[in-house]
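Thread: quick sanity check before group meeting

JM: Hey all, I'm pulling together slides for Thursday and realized we never actually wrote out the predicted structure for the chain we discussed last week. Dropping the sequence here so it's in one place. If anyone has concerns about the input, flag it before I start.
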Amino acid sequence: MKNRTLGSIFIVAGTTIGAGMLAMPLAAAGVGFSVTLGLLIGLWALMCYTALLLLEVYQHVPADTGLGSLAKRYLGRYGQWLTGFSMMFLMYALTAAYISGAGELLASSINNWLGATLSPLKHI
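JM (edit): ok, ran it. Output follows.
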């Protein structure tokens, strides 16, 4: 296995697992364990299916083809735009989730280490 492949695997695993772990306890608190377990299994099956579909498409193009050019080839110009917008939206959502989770963790860590309480800034 090449270094690039292993790095790519870690990037995908980190982005998909990380943000979900921050949001899962709060999202699952109201519906109960059995419903949450059913949703997790259903979403896992959906993600496996879409990953296999994407793998099937990637088998028929050169190795250096990106997702945008793949979308343009099979879905046209509108599909390329929609794919780009979806990826950009995903990255913004992940950034917001990480900033929110990291901000709370940082504030509690500073409180534990230094005994200083950080409060949100007030608008003037």
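AS: nice. The longest helix spans residues 67-114. The chain has a mean pLDDT of 81.
JM: adding both to the slides.
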